[in-house]
## 1
Amino acid sequence: MNPENTSKLLTAYPLLYRNLRNQSFECEDGWFDLVWQVSAEIEAAAQLEGIPKTAKAWPSVGILKQKFGTLRVQFGTRVIETIEALVAKAYERSMERCELCGAPATRVDRTQGGQMETLCESCRKAHRPPPRIQDKSKLPVWMLERDGKL
């Protein structure tokens, strides 16, 4: 996530993200609104539960990242079931929002090797990886060694 959006989250939710102060959020800006929304929901749930707003008691996110095309939020300590449910809902919503721009999207395997990302059609086309050449006989001459091998 870019520094501006990271700063907005750290400023708005200082206790929630106290363990991420010297780190960046490991996801793209397309999920900023999703992260903002789940942050607000977590704080509201903690307040409703009557959790004291202190560094020791308040929920603290230890990891916030993209993994396999989904948003992962992990806490440093155990949290109440309501917060776990909110995080699970954000996880589900992340599979429907482009990581890069926030538009409706689907999860795709960009490398055919398990590197899952959630991208809209436009971002998928713009960030398409180079094609994998299966037939080495179709490689350009300059890529072949003298004996015809790579």
Note: Residues 19 and 78 are 15 Å apart (CA to CA).
## 2
Amino acid sequence: MTDKNFDEVPENEGSDAAASGPAPDSGNISDQNPTDQDSTEASAAEGSDDELTIDDILNAVQTEEASSEDGSDAGIQDAENALLNDLKRLTAEYANYRRRTEEQRHVEIARAKGEAAKDLLPVLDDLDRAQQHGDLVEGSAFSVIAEKVRAVAERLGVTAYGEKGDEFDPQHHEAIFQQPVPGATSSTILEVVEVGYRLGDIELRPAKVVVAVPAE
């Protein structure tokens, strides 16, 4: 009977003990220094108002790390420009080489044609003399051969020049004789002794002519 009385705990005492537990520590807020609280709020306000503008970004001092990165980019750009200039130079040199080679090829072709055409000049001279003497009768075998030879020379690009009455040009005509002619005002071809031949811009043989000059 006595033990039962000691073991029983009054209901009111347990609730009071729980209620009388440690109270919340309100000292963290109430005991905080008012000055520190004001400075914290001011710093937060300044942080919100201190926003970067475009001028601030543009006028900002560049750090050493950023400067070194920009320097490396500039070095890469310089290397790219140097390679591009080398490529342009090589391209121009190759274009000039191709142009010179093509020009030289045309010159060699013209020279080879000229050598072949020179061998035909004596034959062409004989055909002209035969025609002047009336030996090239139309329809004859000799006339047919003459036409074929002249066709070959024409396909090669050989052209004859130097006719009576043309203005005398010492660059292309060879004067073998000068004949004073009354009333002549300039030097002209009086007679063609031997016609000249050209192959394009290449002169195979100058025309040999008699020149009429003004009489004194």
Note: Strands lie at 158-161, 173-181, 188-194, 196-199, 202-205, 207-214.
## 3
Amino acid sequence: MRYSLMPSTRTTPHYGVLLLVLLILFVVAPLLPAERAGYGVELFFDLVLVTGAYSAAWQSRHRFPFLAVTAVTLAMRWTDMALDHSAFSIASIALVFLWVVYAITLIVAALFRMEKVNANAILGAIVAYVLAAVAFATAFQLIELFQPGSFTGLPTGGVQREVESALLYFSFICITTMGFGEIVPVSELARSSVALEGAFGTLYLAVMIARLVGLQSAAKADASPSPSDG
């Protein structure tokens, strides 16, 4: 029997590991000391990229393109860490946005190909929802970099990690439509992006719940005996 570090192209990977890594990142990152937060958060985020690449690599058509995007994203993020230049920062954020959107596309496509609901399908739906918040957070970062002052209430002092953390928090507030109001979009592009995220979050939940419930109902109907069988 042959073994490989790559997952089987015939078996859907378990999204629980990716979800666990994402949750650890969100919980641990704020607890890291300020002097170590940069590299600590980067290592955890790199683990998210690697885990996500492994989860999506089972789809043979997208295996190598997605792994290539992951490798380029990792290289650019560490280049940005080493050189700390605005051009590399923009490229790094843009690549993360591309990677997250690609990952969401692969996960959602896999979910819609599933013929029955199981724990892995539910975890995949949650992962896609969380990654969507990350994608919008990176979009907000790009907006703030190109149009400074697009969001009010962000941390001041020039610490990019604090701004990234604040925008990620803001993104989760938007996608869940909680609307606490500490951070406010003021530019036209920021406002439209925030409105788009709120609409996406609502529609995603409605569509995904309908899909999962429909699959479960169909599975029960198939499992129940027909009147002719009696």
Note: Confidence is low (pLDDT under 50) at residues 1-9.
## 4
Amino acid sequence: MTYFNFIKSTNNYLKSVRIIKDYISFDMSFSNTWSILKEHTKEIEVIKNSSQEENKVVVSFVTPYDEDGINKIENSVNSIIKYNIEKEEKEKLFRSKVQELKNIFENKKLDSLKSLKFDINEFTLLSVENTKDDDGDTERNGDSDFSFSPHKTL
């Protein structure tokens, strides 16, 4: 990746780039709720600092000042951003689905709710496509860790 592309793709997070003797440091501002996994930072020195911005932390990624080191930082930062944005989106989706489930429980009769079934299968994943069976009931197939099968009485 070129410097321009990296800077452009991280402009919401990048605070500074510093050259310190034989080392380079990319200083990034992340949410203080974000996670940085060890697998994201192999062969990179990571230094966390407080931030003047509320709910933020400044993270410095330091490597030797050479092309390989800079590429490692770029890959590391990109994977951290991707991981945490996906995590936030999953949490938002989870809260939304919990709210949907609360609404079902508030609006359906107890007898209908007793027949509600959840099928959890590690190998069956939900897709975003819905299909209708012969009775007109909506079923989901596909690519998630959880599958939801409402009973026909709902």
Note: The longest strand covers residues 23-31.
